[in-house]
Amino acid sequence: MIQVCSLPMVKGHCNGRHSIPTRHWFYNSLSGLCEEFDYSGCGGNSNNFETHEECTRRCEVGACCFRQPQLPNFLIGYDHEGYDRYGYNMSGLDRTARQVVAFNPVRSGPALFGPNGQVFSGLSDGREFDKYGLDKQGYDRDGFHSDTGFNLTGYNKRGDHDSRGEFDTTGFDAEGYNRAQFDCVGINHEGFNYLGFFAAYVYHCEYLPASHCQAINRADLRREVVSFRPGQTCEDVSCSQSCGCTFQGASYNFGESFEYGCEICLCSYTGVIECNCRHVSQRKEIRDMMPGEMKVYQAVIRDLYLKHGIWEDLARLRAEYAPQANGQFTFLPWHRYFLRMVERELQKTSCDISIPYFEWTIDAGSMESSMAWQANVFGSNGNPETDCVSHHPFQQGNEWVPCLRRQFNSSVTLPNAINIQLILAEDDFNQFSIQMEAVSGLFHLWVGGHMASPFSPYDPIFLSHYAFVDKLWTHWQDRSPSGLPRYPPELRFVKMKPFDISPDDMFLSQQQLCTTYVPVTLGAPCNDTTLNPPIHHQEGYHREGLDQTAQPDQRGTYDAHGYNQHGYDRNGFDQSGWDSFAYGRDHFNRDGFDIEGFDASGYNRYGFNRSQVTPFGMRKDESYLPYVEVEVIESLFDRGYNTYGYNKFGLDKNGFDVFGFDEDGYDKDNCNYFFRGPHHMRFYFFIQQQLYMASPELLLNIKRICPPVTPLPDWWLVQNWMAIDVQETVTVIRRVEQKWASHHPFDSGYIPSITSVKDNNLWLPVTPDLRFCFELHWYSGCPLGTLPVSCPDLCQDTECLGFPNAECRVHHCGACFSEWYDRETSRHVMCHGCSYNGQTFQNGDSVIVDTCTSCVCLNGDVSCAPVQCQALNCKGTVKRRGSCCPECPRDCADGRVHGDSWNLDACTHCSCKNGNIQCRGVTCDHLTCLDQYKPAEECCPVCHP
């Protein structure tokens, strides 16, 4: 049981009168310490120790492996003169001081490239030969020395031995060096490899607590921790560099070739395994996989789990090498290679198997309802008491031990697609990588259970999550302005443990690791031949538990909780409340449509209800209900189409409905696969295209309707080796989180649309704004980041000079202006002047609409924008007649300011208003008494008392 220290604390289940709780200890992964608890005496799990010392020895203290370069003044991967294998120094200059202008990996790890950048089929063992066919040590291509004629093991071509007794039968002397003065790792006395590049590390091991091991990491000393194995001593582990090449747990000699899965590989003399791409793995989004593809993927993971603990070994590997897997510079390349390593294991069954990616930003605002958690995809949340996932497709009849644990944490707010695009806009690798690691951590925390533990790869969702992370890194790499790999040059050739692969060996995912990513929806097939609505479960039973002859299901295949081995109850729903066809218990899918194609408001994709009537009262035969004012309806469909571009039958001018399909179910590409949905996937695809092209400034204008992204807790940073003081990582992360918050304009007043019928009785489906976490304004026609505005009818009484048959349209995205289009082709046309309200204007003339709208005639279009008023810093404002903007009031003479009032004399009252002094006489009340008098300093008389 290797996951002991990551298990939750369980007190046990003894409740009898005679059970007396005893003090035990468990390892708390949140605090990183062993803590005591009251153990009931029976039950529980392995994270349960009788003494504090036993707990500490097992979980807090372990073998800490770390390394430093053998020579402090040389960089790994550079020669004596400071140049790398491409001929460039740290400043990107070659030996003639020319700047590197393109990424031209003449020899770059697992893939080999010709001068034109194309992959060629031959493999190289890493040696370089001169024009005489000799390498740097004087050996020819067959391995024989040009002077002596003997190879490294002491034999010539005739089979004679050189009889040098200082070398053993394997060709190494007592100090471990061969005849070319290289050790079994391929490094000479000075620390340089066969190609002449510095590659030597000195490895150490100490038995330390985890916190002390983390403190060993010192970037200024070029000292890095390689692995930490709690519960083991230095005598139990090996911290040194292994001989030859290590690949998928096996060792190979230099120059040895072998076949592995779908690739032919070779151990190069630099200690790197190079493989030929005979098959490129195409990684699809999980929702683009056909049901058959998903079942095969689930089956090979089941098989891998059953093979001598390989699945658990993969989780253990990442837990032990967490210091390499996490961190600003190794996080992305380490996981890229880890994914490929696992994928190679899966492809032993079939080369067509690829790890699917889970683009969870599609569900950022509704993660709990994601398709990923269906019983037939990745399985649902864990049991509230044990966190165990009762049913998931990776176990079927073979229960996982230990169980797969999840504990969804909906208090964690995940980044949405806009947050991700802002991260992709980062130029610096350090800033990009640390943000991707923080984003990844939030997903770990949301899923919880195993994903929130050091053994996160135990959950199959781990692979699909990191495939998404790697896809994002690929996008970021593609955005490099120069095409050069944006990676710290001093770390580019440092081999990552335990793979002995450097980041430089995997910059080009397709060419070097034989993998590529298929964009969302493009991985799905074009056509589906089964477009009939799904009614019965795949085993032939209706969701109410009846077969097609209305007979009840009495097979007895349901457990005590009412679920079968696939995780579905008698009604066909899993624990998350979804059936295998992605319909919920409320009978609606994630797009809000039921199995018959009607939404919650009762209308289908064309705007007709079950009685074949539209919200505005038109029947399918185009007749109207008696109460309908036909003239009003006709005004909504000017020239046959409403303001959203659809006719009365829900089709646009090209015959496509609101989801982009014609009445036969085909889109513009003549595909029908997404005709029945999920439509939010297609929304996401088109939204992504806009986001990808948008500038950061435009992205920041898009208000979000989900709360800001959750900060990472301190314990997570410690557990994942992100809290070590390497370039003040924690400080960098906290600054990043502050930037995320400032870049998250939150619309707290957003009111979600709950009906598809608009105020004007037109029908439009509810768009997935809440699922995506931002308003799409989809049917406004406005691009993201440009809000629709209310505009006057700029097309009223206008004409296009030079194109009398052109059609006028009011543009209302961000600003108001009119545009002219050819009625036949819908192409934009340029007018020679403007006509508005019976007046003709020349190009550049101002057009008066009202005092608060500034308009101008531009090439036949009247373009308008609201008058921008300056911010005023005065108390109280005034507005002059004929002016749109308020002004600060003017003061009066004699030091009087606006708003002052005073008495000029007893009978005159004055005031200062906007620079003018206004005075008026006091009006006295009419008195009825006979005895009157006027008091001193008063204007009006009063009656005597």
Can you offer a commentary on this structure?
There is one protein chain. Helices cover 17% and strands 13% of the residues. Helix 6 (331-346) crosses helix 9, helix 8 (429-447) packs antiparallel against helix 9 (461-478) and helix 8 (429-447) crosses helix 15 (729-742). The strands form 10 sheets. Strands 15-16-21-20-19 form a 5-stranded antiparallel β-sheet, with no helix packed on it. Among the domains are: 281-517, di-copper center containing domain from catechol oxidase; 807-866, no CATH class; 901-943, no CATH class. The chain is α+β, with helices and mostly antiparallel strands. The radius of gyration is 37 Å and the shape is globular. Mean pLDDT is 87; it is low at 105-122. It has 16 helices and 26 strands.
Mean pLDDT: 87
Which stretches are poorly predicted, pLDDT < 50 over at least 5 residues?
A: 105-122
**Strand order in the largest sheet:** 15-16-21-20-19
Shape: globular
CATH topology (fold) name of the domain at 281-517: di-copper center containing domain from catechol oxidase
Helix content: 10-25%
Give a short account of the largest sheet.
Answer: 5 strands, antiparallel
Oligomer: single chain
The top level CATH class name of the domain at 281-517: Mainly Alpha
The amount of beta strand, in percent, is 5-15%
